[in-house]
Amino acid sequence: MGDNPMLKFVGTAQDYPSKRTASERAHDFTEISRSFHVEKAEEQASRCSQCGVPYCSTHCPLHNHIPDWLRLTAEGRLREAYELSNATSTMPEICGRICPQDRLCEGNCVIEFSGHGSVTIGSVEKFITDTAWKEGWVEPLVPGKPTGQSVGIIGAGPAGLTTAEYLRAAGHEVHVYDRHDRAGGLLTYGIPGFKLEKDVVMRRVQRLKDGGIVFHEGFEVGRDVTLEELRQRHDAILIATGVYKARDIKAPGVGAPGVVAALDYLIASNRASFGDDVPGHADGSLLAKDKHVVVIGGGDTAMDCVRTAVRQGAKSVKCLYRRDRDNMPGSQREVQNAEEEGVEFVWLSAPVAFEGVDHVSGVKAVRMRLGQPDASGRRAPEPEPGSEFTLEADLVIKALGYDPEELPKLFGSQDLSVTRWGTLRVDHKSMMTSVDGVFAAGDIVRGASLVVWAIRDGRDVTEHMHRYLKAKAKAGVHAQERELA
């Protein structure tokens, strides 16, 4: 292969950044993996086969130029690698940490199919941008030439922040409204620090603030202002609230003290990591310390909950899921991390009741078997008759996913059209809702999904909003000309 810095996958084995031992990492909320050293990043990047059809890129929602920045990394051209990575993503170091690469880019790597183990794309992506921050290569957000137009963005999660950045760079005045006291959405309050340390999110937010984007934190549309009143302030609106309404379980005893929602539990834990006073920790209602914890669900939120409970000093942590390991929606890497940290998985099991009079004391469950595929193509779980059993529990965390809130009612805007699932209905050619000048992006349109898809939606809606604003400005000029005539 001569001096070719690539195609080293035959002689160089796949390697990931070393993880701290389970016993060490189970006592803190610091990220579990160390970053690559430069030599290791170059080595692992050099394993890329530079294939003609890069399935890694086509299966990335952002269509990142992965083979190109892997080659630049292998050649030691890290600044160029960062600039190329940054060209398609507003948060590459965040995606490098929390994307399920095993289901996206790495899971579709050509050399993975050949049996050599995929390129460790996410770890290299994280290394590139972390290096850029350290070296001062991440440039400030520079506003474009002022357009005289104003945009309001409801929701400071990944979709809203992405749109805010691009529209500010285009010269618009941008205001971001969020119900929480810190921006970032689930990046800040939903994802634990052992997957995404909070200073990584906060430095991104600060860059946007330094670029002149105005954040209105602790601000609720519907409480502090109606959607219509917000429309009067701005030339266009983006709704990027995400989905926060927790799905529930219909079972006797589900309302007992000690049965809590996953997001309440995770927000309390993340607030504590910021040093906030957390009533749910002070009274123990949202704290796992010295408790037998049962988490119900099989997605990434459930994995976040079980691993948080370990770190809070639970006596035992069990995850109850109605399907088997191969059919769970969460990342297999997260399952492995949880098992290493002492979490017990109770597969093919579902709750039927919650025991306890004044406080939950146990979960009564039934064994399940997988039947015929349902409408989604997944085999539907069915209960095994006579297979009931009970798990001891002082704290039960429901991690069953999220649905949209009733935004037309919440925002005081009955003109907002929703789908039968409660998500906002948009014209997919323009990403505009049923209300003129009001756009929507992210989970509030597609349902609970991945951060990388929210970034993609934020990027896409920017083009539609910019086109709308240009047309509106042009129409305003014509109206003024008619008045003068």
From TrEMBL:
Keyword annotations of the record: 4Fe-4S, Iron, Iron-sulfur, Metal-binding, NADP, Oxidoreductase
Keyword flag NADP: yes
Domain of life: Bacteria
GO MF term set: 4 iron, 4 sulfur cluster binding; metal ion binding; oxidoreductase activity
Location of the Dihydroprymidine dehydrogenase domain: 25-136
UniProt-listed PANTHER family: GLUTAMATE SYNTHASE [NADPH] SMALL CHAIN, GLUTAMATE SYNTHASE [NADPH] SMALL CHAIN-RELATED
NCBIfam families: gltD_gamma_fam
Protein name in UniProt: NAD(P)-dependent oxidoreductase
Source organism per UniProt: Sphingobium fluviale
